[in-house]
Amino acid sequence: SCARMHYRPGMTKSFAAVVVLTMGLVLGLAACGPSAAQVKVAKEARYKASVDVIFDVAVLVAKEQGKLFGVDPESRVVVTLPRWHKPDGGLESAGVGDAVLVGDGALLVALKIMVVDDDAGLVRVDVVPVVERFRMGQSQHDVLAPDDPSMPGWVLGKVDAMALAIHQRAKVHAVPAAAPAASAARRSVHTVKISG
Q1: pLDDT digits (tens, 9 = 90+) for 42-62
Q2: 3-state DSSP call for residue 180?
Q3: Selection from 10, 145, 130 nearest residue 82 by Cα
Q4: Residue 45 and residue 167 in contact, taking contact as beta carbons nearer than 8 Å
Q5: Residue 28: its pLDDT value, please?
Q6: Residue 49: what are its φ and ψ, rounded to 5°?
Q7: How many CB atoms lie within 10 A of CB 26?
Q8: Burial of 183 by CB count in 10 Å (0-12 exposed, 13-18 middle, 19+ buried)?
Q9: Is 129 helix (H, G, I), strand (E, B) or coil?
């Protein structure tokens, strides 16, 4: 549905047009986000290509997304540069030099991207969050497992976005998804005539 603009005294038509255009852009961007189905396809994708080819794609995409902390061609692992975030996902404020001012509950977040050969001779890409939580009064940070129930949704959103971005670049090598087992079973059923 289209938003209707009501003019107020003193409001110029050009200002009203800017407001309507901005609303349209915001709504359009919200509607264009990846769907759960697209993310699922990206995470479950298997590629018929060499591990090195897919690893190069993963490194390229990770670099485009931001700075890298480390790249290990032997183990085919890429880690993005860890950054401090507020609990709601906003970046923590920079301090003096390389220092960052962090508050209680702040999260140090990086993504670990692993390119793996599977048993079927295909290649997959796994993206997992690497997260530590700062707590006032504690000498060490809390390390959050990827499946920790307290893991914020925005962190998982970063994982999904990275997996999807890599898949968009690597999908030319993707193998079509296998048919569900139930469908395969239905196709394999055949009629046997019993003589009596």
Answers
A1: 999 999 999 999 999 999 999
A2: coil
A3: 130
A4: yes
A5: 47
A6: -160, 170
A7: 10
A8: exposed
A9: strand
Contact 124, 167 (CB under 8 A): no
Strand pairing category for 123-133 and 107-117: antiparallel
pLDDT lower than 70: segments of the chain: 1-33, 95-97, 178-196
| Tokens read off for 61 | 């995409």
Question: Is the whole model's pTM more than 0.90, yes or no?
Answer: no
> How far does CA 156 lie from the centroid of its chain?
7
Residues in the chain: 196
CA atoms within 13 A on the CB side of 186: 5
Opening angle at CA 135, ends 129 and 138, nearest 5: 115
Residue with tokens 């508050």: 103
Q: What is the pLDDT of residue 112?
A: 98
**From CA 185, how far away is CA 162, in angstroms rounded?**
35
